[in-house]
Design a protein that fits this description.
Two copies of one chain form a homodimer. Chain A is α/β, with parallel strands linked by helices and 408 residues long. In chain A, strands 7, 10, 11, 12, 13, 14, 18, 19 and 21 form a nine-stranded mixed β-sheet that branches. Chain A has a seven-stranded parallel β-sheet with strand order 3-2-1-4-5-6-20, sandwiched between helices. The radius of gyration of chain A is 20 Å and the shape is globular. Chains A and B meet through α10, β15, β16 and α11 of A and α10, β15, β16 and α11 of B.
Chain lengths: 408, 408
């Protein structure tokens, strides 16, 4: 296996550090528009090399694949570049993996009721081309989407005879402090992407169809495990809701993000003021995108690791009927402590938790445990070998039976 | 009287429109860095002309004064330019008026307890120079500071024998709608200045000394007159607190601004994110000040008038002992309806209410009713002729006796 890793940012850097400890691949070529960044990520191991890449140009991606005899393209950049990397991989005859799917566009008339172009629609539209070429595009194989989707397959195969709701729930108790030890506001993930996710109309799968709601809808306090505790969660547009129902029978699929009250207020204010907008505005002789300015004034998520403490939890709350015919409510989850990822890998927990999953998936593909062609989500594959191999990386998953048999 | 009006923005434009109806002056030269803007403001009357001016350069201001035989410089730009205009006027031998005083700088060690450089300190520091030259700098003669200070003098002369607190209270029920009639967030005053005022440490005069507090301190719901109703008010740094105790005996002086809960939340979020910062940040190859970006994404306060409705109220809540020896609590106020200012003057109510006061003051100086030399606040002059002349402009002041004799 020869991998082209596109993107040497927070997640790409963590991917390189995690993959360097495994022997399933022959070479990883790290590509970034900033070649110095690619070189830093590639410094982990002699099997790594660094190149410059234009992620917005499918031809540039395909040419790199040919030049380096790439078998798998690993996309670790902002999803705005998804389609060019995805198209470039197919053109070059390589398999493809990403951690977020092609972008959505709201319904022009009823954005908060009906779906427009959904997450992943552009990728699924060419699934037949991938299948005909005998190539695999494994989409959404980070932690969420990714591990959450693996949990869904595990629940369907081993825990439930009938599923009512597949409810992804994400929460954390991470705190970032400044040099004086005071708490500061510093998102642990790309602020640009967080705004995109949280202000787009959330999508819900219900009784055989997708619909959308207003941002921040259906708030719910979810009690996260391993000391994280209760966090206010709201509906957010996310890939799981589009992926899970394609392979797993369920009455309802949701994604709720534990933003917490402060973050919800911040996002609402940014939207009220128009600071979430991506179109450039003219400011004293220069042109900038307000959303880029918001991202620029905040600490870089890739650098906050050493000043962060706490844990992050990704998981799936499944309700329905267990294999024994009784009502069942189970939370399958993966908690990572920032102290551990920093000590063990030198990467903060949120990017580490995202990056470990495609490393596991690539190893399963390299060893032939997972096989497939076309455009497939993680739930199209057997969950057990994935969960077993994940545990080898030092951060095992967990399972909690819930008192209530219905979602809140 | 020959006036140089520096600044043809919202307040400058309204000043020109109001002054054009009076005959106390011979000429008004409107200066702006954007000469087209100056020309638009000067189009109201044949006594007006337009010039280009660099408000940051005292020499440029002084040269214009000499060229146009200016007797009074009317400063209507952001207070960041105060000192150059103030110095330029004195150098040219002209009198000077402004509506906001020279800027403050927080105390370096205890910003929320002790004052550093206070509002107006730089101007009062050279008061002797103005007095020696026989020239007058009338500082803070907008609506707040300005009319509020006139109210303080009126209360001391005619209503109270002893004053406990001079509490300026500002509130409004203004709403701005977009073209579809939906309410939008659109400050009626410069967002840059509002951030400056609201995030600086508020200053309070208490028992013979000034001290500061944390932003948004001592929240209080004040019931504003003429249908505006209750609005949440908080301490804000403002000139009245620095001006009133210099001329009027009082135990305490405060300024509370009726920001309302939404605006307070917005300002807190901007501060949390660092979007209130004025130092430039690098954003994808260009450099911008985050606060300038915030101001740029919002509607221009000078243009929201036609889409705004409601009233704004400026006033002074005075408590103490009345002339009759009884406890007294009186709110002296000035309410302006946006519908009226738009119909009558074509300017929105907040800028109109700010601009009418220096027009009144200049007329009192032109007619010799007000005289003085040095650096003086509005409370250094007799309030009665001011309040009488203000009423001639169509928006009279009001007085409300309050049920409670103590401030909340």
């Amino acid at each position: 296996m020869r991998i082209l890793l596109v993107g040497a940012g927070g997640v790409g850097g963590a991917f390189a550090a995690i993959a360097a400890r495994r022997d399933f691949f022959e070479a990883i070529v790290v590509g970034d528009h900033d070649v110095a960044k690619a070189e830093r990520a590639a410094a982990v191991d002699a099997r790594f090399s660094a190149v410059q890449v234009d992620a917005s140009d499918a031809g540039s991606v395909a040419a790199l694949c040919a030049e380096h005899r790439i078998t798998h393209v690993m996309n670790a950049v902002d999803p705005v570049f998804n389609m060019s990397i995805f198209d470039g991989a197919l053109a070059a005859g390589a398999d493809y993996l990403d951690m977020a799917m092609s972008l959505s566009r709201p319904h022009p008339e009823a954005p908060y009721e009906r779906t427009g172009v959904k997450l992943g629609d552009e990728q699924f539209a060419v699934a037949d081309d991938w299948a005909a070429a005998g190539r695999l595009a494994l989409v959404g194989i980070g932690v969420e989407p990714g591990l959450s989707d693996v949990f869904a397959r595990y629940a369907a195969d081993h825990l439930f005879s009938e599923i009512d709701e597949l409810g992804t729930r994400d929460g954390a108790n991470l705190v970032v402090t400044d040099n004086d030890g005071n708490e500061v506001f510093a998102p642990s993930f790309s602020m640009w992407t967080t705004i995109e996710e949280c202000l787009n109309p959330p999508v819900v799968w219900q009784d055989g169809a997708w619909h959308t709601t207003a941002p921040f809808s259906e708030p719910e306090v979810f009690d996260f495990p391993e000391g994280i505790g209760p966090v206010e969660c709201v509906n957010v547009e996310h890939e799981e809701v589009l992926l899970m129902p394609r392979w797993i029978d369920c009455r309802r699929a949701t994604f709720k993000y534990g933003l917490g009250e402060e973050f919800i207020t911040i996002l609402k204010v940014l939207h009220t003021l128009g600071l979430d907008r991506t179109e450039k505005v003219r400011v004293k002789g220069v042109e900038v995108s307000p959303r880029d300015v918001v991202a620029a004034v905040l600490p870089d998520p890739a650098t906050v690791g050493p000043r962060m403490r706490g844990k992050t939890c990704a998981g799936l709350w499944v309700t329905g009927t267990g294999k024994d015919g009784q009502a069942r409510s189970t939370y399958l989850y993966h908690v990572v402590d920032n102290e551990w990822t920093m000590a063990e890998y030198g990467h903060q927990c949120v990017v580490w938790q995202t990056a470990v999953n495609p490393v596991v998936a690539l190893e399963l593909l390299a060893t032939g445990v997972w096989t497939g062609v076309g455009v497939l989500g993680p739930e199209a594959f057997d969950a057990v070998p994935f969960l077993d191999l994940l545990a080898e990386h030092g951060a095992p998953w967990g399972q909690r039976e819930m008192a209530s048999s219905t979602l809140g």
